[in-house]
Amino acid sequence: MLYRGFLRLVDLLPLPSARAQRIIALLVILSQALIAVTGSIVRVTASGLGCPTWPKCFDDSLVPIARQDVPWWHQAIEFGNRQIAVWIVITLSAAIVLAVTRARRRREILVYAWIMPASTIVQAVLGGITVLTGLKWWVVGAHMLASCAMVWIAAVLFVKIAQPDDGGRTPAAPATARRLVAWAGAAMALVLAAGTTVTGAGPHAGDRTNPEAIDRLKVSIPLLASIHGGLLVVFLAILSAAAVLIARGPSDEPVRRRVRITLLVVCAQALIGVVQYFTHVPGVLVVLHVAGACSVVAETAILYQLMAPRIARPGFPATSNTRGIRPSAGSAAAPRE
């Protein structure tokens, strides 16, 4: 009954075109990556406790106030990061829910869309725990990994929105290649987890005013960086093997193009990591590395989804919710191995 009332209210909104839905979905990906990037800015500027309480900035103030013990710029950076989470991420998460609900998209899309605002709330709570626990390294790492997971979900939603609601999946690349990309995704998750340990032991504690009070991972940084780098090599090797199969086997052009883009992004990210390590982890490269991590996550997710796209039934008329979505180049393709 409650959901029916929600649908009646949503039906008062203009019907979004397929292009509008895709644009909103793209903005959702960017917003999820943005919150991770601004979080890294908070860290490298040592503004993690610029607002030492949550959800308020201070116990007696929701917003930053003039204080001797906390510089105003630390307050502004941390408070700004929170505002991005509230106004940009939540707004766009709500927008994608309203758009796909109004367009009466298939249940799969609705589920992914609703995950965005729900997970954003969870992420906000996790951010609060990060502050209230005094920036413990493993909580900060979990916060970053949650952001990466949300980028993955948003990227999957972006691909699914561009596909028709009728019909079924058709292979657009060799099945073995798709399995390799799935394994590459698992390896990527390990790379990201290992990366948070390097950060947890690194020089950016997140609070310059009292760095000795911040819980740090007391393990050799070269050792952690070697593990991180080794896992990256495994990830890149699996992805490269998939790329070879995609190039040799019957694959649709969107998949061929996307695997090239993914490999380029991964190599660029690896280069940033190497330069970052040998230049003693400058803050600007940390921010670029976090942005690169989000890019790798999004590209890998998109690649995996494109390898088995949903294809419309031949001769089935386009409905208002998917008008403008074109069938994939592989719509007439036979199953491939």
Radius of gyration: 22 Å
Which structural class fits the helix and strand makeup?
A: mainly alpha
Helix content: 55-70%
Give me the strand/helix succession: HHHHHEHHHHE
- The poorly predicted ranges are 316-320, 326-337
Number of strands: 2
- The neighbouring-strand order within the major sheet is 1-2
Taking the sheet with the most strands, its summary is:
2 strands, antiparallel
Mean pLDDT: 87
Beta strand % = under 5%
Number of helices: 9
Count the domains: 1
Termini distance?
47 Å
Bulk shape: flat
Transmembrane segments: 23-46, 84-102, 109-131, 137-159, 180-201, 221-247, 259-278, 284-304
Subcellular location: Membrane
InterPro entries: COX15/CtaA_fam, COX15/CtaA_HemeA_synthase
Keywords: Cell membrane, Disulfide bond, Heme biosynthesis, Iron, Membrane, Metal-binding, Oxidoreductase, Transmembrane, Transmembrane helix
